[in-house]
């Protein structure tokens, strides 16, 4: 299976990464390696020349409280589950040097592909959840049919929807 990203490693050059969002820049500069070492998330990157980080995203396990899901999704799930397994796409950022060329979309597709195949082969997940840091992030994810989870500051895309991207039944 091919991906456009590789796992973040110590030899990758993170210091010059700049996406214009301080929270996301600081994460890759100072925290990403520690989160990976502590098994809090996995960070996948697009590497440019000299192993410079040009884009990244993080994945980890999460759950969704049943009561936050739309009724049409809840109907098909067992009532005994109060929290449902999901995949958290915690951060996604593209360096300014490659912004505006569709790379954010490609990075998102890469993350959804990893999440989907993991959900059918390794660890069950009913959706991908994203943390949205601002209105720009909300606007980006809405273009790809992510829906707001009420009162949470997060958005989600059901795994059944993601399955259609990769022509698989789920």
Helix content: 25-40%
Arithmetic mean pLDDT: 93
Major beta sheet, specifics?
7 strands, mixed
Radius of gyration: 16 Å
Number of strands: 7
Q: What series of H and E elements makes up the topology? A: EHEEHEHEHEEH
Q: What is the CATH homology-level superfamily of one domain? A: Gcn5-related N-acetyltransferase (GNAT)
**Cα shape:** globular
Folded structure, characterized:
By secondary structure, the protein is of the alpha+beta class. The protein has a domain at 55-165: Gcn5-related N-acetyltransferase (GNAT) (Aminopeptidase), CATH 3.40.630. It contains 5 helices and 7 strands, in the order βαββαβαβαββα. It has helices spanning 22-37, 71-74, 103-121, 135-142, 159-165; strands at residues 6-7, 42-47, 53-65, 83-94, 127-131, 147-149, 154-158. Strands 1-2-3-4-5-7-6 form a 7-stranded mixed β-sheet, sandwiched between helices. Strand 2 (42-47) and strand 3 form a beta hairpin.
In brief:
By secondary structure, this protein is an alpha+beta fold. The chain has a domain at 55-165: Aminopeptidase. Helices cover 32% and strands 27% of the residues.
Task: Describe the protein's topology.
Layout: E1 6-7, H1 22-37, E2 42-47, E3 53-65, H2 71-74, E4 83-94, H3 103-121, E5 127-131, H4 135-142, E6 147-149, E7 154-158, H5 159-165
Parallel strand pairs: 4-5
Antiparallel strand pairs: 1-2, 2-3, 3-4, 5-7, 6-7
Helix pairs in contact: 3-5
Q: What characteristics describe this protein?
A:
Aminopeptidase; 27% strand; alpha+beta; 7-stranded mixed β-sheet; globular; 170 residues
